[in-house]
TrEMBL record:
GO MF: carbon-nitrogen ligase activity, with glutamine as amido-N-donor
Entries under InterPro entries matching the protein: Asn/Gln_tRNA_amidoTrase-B-like, GatB_Yqey_C_2, YqeY/Aim41, YqeY/Aim41_N
Source organism superkingdom: Bacteria
Name of the protein in question: Uncharacterized protein
Pfam families: YqeY
Organism whose genome encodes this protein: Weissella soli
TM stretches of this protein: none
């Protein structure tokens, strides 16, 4: 079942359950996926679907952080609920240990020895973990291991 079909079914379920938060998030995700299909001119592959979901999740996380920093806890709670809904559609995330293992393998593949090689490592690493791990965690792990 494609992501668009899943989102449509979940939208109907949320409507019947009168779950406003889930309904609004699913509508937004469905809209984003449809817009991306129109922009690219074809049905999205699973990698492209994950990229759209990752972009939407990242926007919400940044919004959550800005509300938290501003002391707007009630708005941060709303965004947190939205983040939980978006995460349901994301592939399973890698643990910190799994990320560390992949980073070590990639550093060995690339032959990196110092922080100057950060770009080479990240370039080779990101396609392996795209959508499966948080970019900040990956970047921090690479920097720690190259230090």
């Amino acid at each position: 079942m494609s992501l668009l079909a899943t989102l449509t079914a979940d939208m109907k379920t949320a409507m019947k359950a009168k779950d406003k938060v889930t309904l609004s998030v699913v509508r937004m995700l469905k809209s984003s996926v449809s817009n991306e299909e129109i922009k690219l001119g074809h049905e999205l592959s699973s990698d492209e679907e994950v990229a759209v979901l990752s972009r939407e999740l990242k926007q919400r996380v940044e919004e959550f952080d800005s509300y938290k920093d501003a002391g707007r806890d009630e708005l941060a709670a709303d965004i947190e609920a939205q983040i939980a809904v978006v995460k349901q559609y994301m592939p399973a995330q890698l643990s910190a240990e799994e990320v560390t293992t992949i980073v070590k393998e990639t550093i060995a593949e690339v032959g990196a020895t110092s922080k100057a090689d950060l770009g080479k490592v990240m370039g080779a690493l990101m396609p392996k973990v795209k959508g499966k791990a948080d970019g900040k965690l990956v970047n921090k792990t690479v920097q720690d291991l190259l230090a």
